[in-house]
Each structure stands twice: as C-alpha cells, then as structure tokens.
Amino acid sequence: MNDDFEPRITAFVCNWCTYTGADLAGTSRLHMASNVRLIRLPCTGRIDPLFIIKAFERGADGVIVSGCHPADCHYTSGNYHARRRFAVFHDIMQFIGVDPRRITFSWVSASEGAKWRDVVDEAVRGVQEIGPYEAYRALAPDAGATAPAGEAKPAPDAAPAGAEVAP
Amino acid sequence: MTEAAPVYAGVAELQRVARELLEVGDVRVIIGWEDARRGARPVFVSDPADTDKLIFDTRCVHNLVTYLNPRRDHVAELGKIGLVVKGCDVKAVAGLLREQQIDRDHVVLIGVRCGGVLEENELPAALALTPENVAPRCYGCDNREPSLTDHLVGEPQPEPPRPVMTIDERVAALDDLPAEERWAFWTEQFNKCVRCYACRQVCPLCICERCIVEKTQPQWIESAAHPRGNLSWNVTRAIHLAGRCVDCGECERFCPVGIPLSLVNRKLQQIVHDRYDYTVSDDPENAAPIGDYRLDDQQEFIK
C-alpha cells in the first residue's frame, strides 16, 4: 500500500439523502479523507452506468455511487430501479476484470453523516491499496505520451479532471 | 469429412404455406432463406411463383427477426410481412412484442421446427451437425418447437449435439481467471473493435432510433476506435441488452474482427438469472428484469 498516493474519487450522490448526509458530515466537522469530489444528481435513478465509465475515462481512480436507502426514495422507486441496474453493472464490470474496490455503492441517508465518512474513508483506503488506475489510463489514445496521472496530490481547490463529467 | 445433412422434410410445406399466404394476399412479402452460391442467405419473396426458392436447413443461422426491428421501417413499408422463424428467433419476436415495438397483427410467423444450426453457414450444402460444427448456442435449446407462430412446419427434430466447448464452459473458464487476466483478455478483445457497429445493426433488439454512441452533445462514448472508447462502447452495448438479449449470436457472427460477444451476453444472462431468476423466454408477457424491481432485490454489493 502506497500511503503517499492520494486517489481521485468521484462520487455520484442523490440530492435528497447522500448529498444532505455529506453536508451533515461537513457541518458536524467530521474528519474524513478529502479525495472525493461530489457530483449531485436528483436521484440514483438518474445515474447511468456510463457516468461511472466516464469518470474512469477522465482519470478517476475510484467511484462512489450513493443514494437514499430502499423505501426512502424521494421519487418512490428511483433507487430500486438503480439497484437492479447497478447490480448488473457491478457484476459485468467484475467479469471484465475491474477490481470491485474501484466502485463503491452505498445507501447513506440525510442523517447518516458518520456513515458517509466511513464510506468515504473505506473507499479511499480500498483504492489506496490497489493504487492508481493505470490499467484504465493505459487505454487512452495518448497513453504513453503523458506521465501517469494520479501520482501528484490533487490540488485542494482546483477541480481535478476526474471530477468533470459531461452534463 | 462430415456427412451431408438429411433433407429437411418441412421445406415443401414451408413453400406451400408461403405460396398460399402470398396468393391469398394475406402478406405482401415472405422473408425466409434461400440457397445461394455462398450458402444460405435471407431472401424476400413477394411473387408466389418464387416461393420455391425458400429453403430450410442447418445453414439457416440468420435471425430474420432483425427485419422487424422498428429501426428498419423501410421493411415495414413493404406491407404485411410473413416471417420464417426458428424457435430461438421467436424469443426476439417476443422481445419486440414485450416492448411494444411491433404489432402482432402486422406479421405472420411461419415457424420451422429446428434441430440446431451450423456455426459456419457459408457452405454450398447443408452438413449434418457434429460437436465440432454446431453453433454453440444451440446446445440446451428449449425452443425447438417454436411458439407464437401462425403456421408451424417440419417434423420434430433431434436434439442438437453438445459442442466441443459450450458457451457456459467458456464463461466459467474466464470466471476462473484472476481479475487482471480477465482485464487483459477483454481489453485485447475490445482493442480489435473497429467500431463498425455491425453488432448493433444486426441485433433484433437494439431498437433505439438514435443510439447513445451517436450522441455528440455531450459525447458519452468516444467514437474513435481506440481502446478506451471501445471498452465503453462494448460494455454499454452489452448492458443495454441485459435481460433482453435472446442469444441469437448474430452480433458475434457479424463481428468482422471476431470479438466473442456471446460470452459477454451469456454472462449477462447468467447475472439476471442468478439475481432475478429471469430467463429470456418466448413469452411476451414476461416483463424484463431491468425496468422492473422488487422490494427485496439482492443488495449484498451495496454498503
């Protein structure tokens, strides 16, 4: 495990539960890893598996997808639909050879600031164990021309390339 | 040398049914198979006199249901279609019905009882099936007696032989590899992709009028044929067919660079079967697993 490696992690979170839960973690001044960039979406049902692929394409070392617990969805059933879609995506990505530690799925409610911290810390630790996602970066058309990304620590205020996802 | 296949007894009946349908004017065109120099190929017959072209034998691998795909509206414009289908093809018809993509009244289905087809169909004459030449997907076929059909021809056929290596065995062999080797295998396979989209064009169930890969604002899937975009495209194509793919194998057969797409497709079938106890069937009422949900779905992968 490389302690110096600061992974870039993109989190796709739903507006109603996890985003608010992450906000609570912040206002509660919980200490947690600062490697995660949040992307707020209306619902986990809005999160297409392509978002996750895109995050990896743009340099993410890991991805978190999080939303409302079952039965808590603001739109009644968005998270149930998402659960099936992600189950299939999770399994097929493993079949393709993606380490499951790269993609974390969780349910975090608006009151679970502490759980969000745990999810983030665990995801960051998991990605630190397996290192930068060089295997994915090697797929890039200009791979080899550029120095491997992810070794430099992400600047705290500038949004890293990994957080950019097309709207 | 493999021996020639016995003549399919239902051919005369197939031709008679087709001729009657055209003569009565029930349908405007019959889509079936004909014999050509390079093997069996699809044929559109609109003249009753031409129905003696129609054949059926072990070379008739094509899933003709792709002509019912709503993207092919120029076929629908020909008028009411009479379609010759094998049992496996019927699943694709059921898929289109399930998703309200076709009107059952606008197509007459002529089912042929099938005992399996060849993997390689470009042959001057039909061969008897052996474990070496049978299409692997035929193994374990549960649709040798086509359902949903308006006419059914031919006599019951023997069960297709077991291929040298079944698709399930090939998937299991991949599953047994460490993740890095699976990644190496699939990236090497996908790297061959030239992005011709033949897999999508031939698929009877790739029904989007505008495919996500053609969307450029934003561009979700990079369209240049480089490994990163290829991975994105091939994974997306596969998961868009999760719980829908009927395993007709046409995508793999059409792939000009030989990507083993049937392994991804089979893996997805296994996933929806294991997680949601769902098998793609010839029953149009049987709702597909994606787009549906149960409150107690598995979620062991979610923290």
Question: How would you sum up this structure, described in words?
Answer:
The complex is a heterodimer of chains A (167) and B (303). Chain A is an alpha/beta fold and 167 residues long. Chain A has one domain (9-148): Rossmann fold (3-Layer(aba) Sandwich), CATH 3.40.50. Chain A has five helices and four strands, in the order βαβαβαβαα. A four-stranded parallel beta sheet of chain A has the order 2-1-3-4, sandwiched between helices. In chain A, α3 links the parallel β3 (62-67) and β4. In chain A, α1 (18-27) crosses α4. In chain A, 50% of the residues are buried. Residues 147-167 of chain A have low confidence and may be disordered. Chain B is globular. The longest helix of chain B is centred in the last third of the chain and has 16 residues, at 261-276. Chain B contains nine helices and six strands. Chain B is an alpha/beta fold.
